[in-house]
Task: structure prediction
Amino acid sequence: MNKEKDVIICRCEDVTLEEIRELIKRGYTTVDEIKRITRAGMGPCQGRTCRDLIIREIARLTGKRVEEIPMPTFRPPIKPIKLGVLAESEDD
Amino acid sequence: MKRSAEVVIIGGGIQGCAVAYNLAKMGCRDVVVLEKNTIASGSTGRCAAGIRAQWGTEMNCRLGIASIEIFENLSEELGADIGLHQGGYLMIAYRESEFEQLKRNVALQNSLGIKSRVISADEAKELCPLLNTEGAVGFTYHHRDGHADPLLTTFAYAEAAKRLGVEIYSFTEAVGIDVNNGKVRGVRTNRGFISTGVVVNCAGPYAREVAAFAGVDIPIYPERHEILVTEPIERVSKPMLMSFSGNFYIQQRPHGSFIMGYGPEEHLKSHALNSTWEFLEGMARKFVRLLPRLSGLRVVRQWAGSYEMSPDAQPILGRVEEVEGFYISAGFSGHGFMFGPITGKLMAELILSGETSIPIDMLSYRRFQRGELIREPAVV
Result:
């Protein structure tokens, strides 16, 4: 069993530990770059699980501290919202 | 970091990476790309991904179709998937005058070999069965238009350029350009000086600041545009939907998610990139009116990016006459990603041979001084 290949880091977008480690080794050492290449963190949960795991992997492979790894921007909405619900709001 | 290079490119978006790749492909491999953040972190990575040849000026039609031809073979050329989807752009007119303009555009496009056409409401509904055509007076369609992944495309250019010897420095910000006796001598960065005789300004919304380093004033300014993406569903819309009077674009990516946006009501000249609740609601209303059956679709994320606007919404391309060795490829006004493959090639040709395979003289920054602005009728 290939362990890295079987460990899913981003469950929304099916990104494995193997893919993440491969990118870090190729020099992509920010969460943003890994997100842009693999879509990790772009799914419905917006990186709630994978973000911290990816930061930990980057820290581990680059020898940096977790605090030194830049955080990606947190973007709204906090939870997915139906377009139909948004369209019906009447606050203007 | 290199201390000297034949060419230094400022900006690691689609323009910078495509210019770098094309220079290296044509044999000029001593090239450095400076990016103050990471690749595709600015306007390119925030853009709407659209690619089209349905334009209203000859220049844009020529650039558009030439770029589509490159996009069609780009995954193969660069050795990485760029996420191309050619489902066409379906243009929707809600006013008679707008439809007349679209028809004139199609006549111009056809005269240049672009096989766009006017289509009926029935045909529009065949292309996008969930479309509510109420209020629409006419439609045009070009099957080779579509969209590609701006992130994957830019990374593919960057990786291919690196394989040819180009060096790309992230978190490396240009802070000055040294000019001596009217010639470029080098670029100062936060990590030291790089000596060079050629600098290409591909700084997008920061192109004005970068030009000022060399003492040149170009009228490019940033303008915030907002956009959102939904959860993925099975493919329900083949074409990208766009309307100038309706002020929207809506497209479904191969991944299944919908991306959509519209032009801002306030045209603020600022580097601000915040998101607003007003956009979220406004976009939702437009979307639900157009595709009512999809009102249950959820928004996953919204963000903003800068259009790098020029006064006539056309790019500034070419060499700067008063500073030898200084070139500009910026001011794309919301269309930089789709033009990137062709303008990257043209700029490399210009730098290496002084000539381009498509004439771009009319896109010189000097047009603003001469009052020769280009009016493109087909922009959102």
Notes: The domain at 85-146+221-309 of chain B is CATH 3.30.9.10 (D-Amino Acid Oxidase; Chain A, domain 2). The first strand of chain B starts at residue 7 and ends at 10. The CA atoms of residues 83 and 136 of chain B lie 31 Å apart.
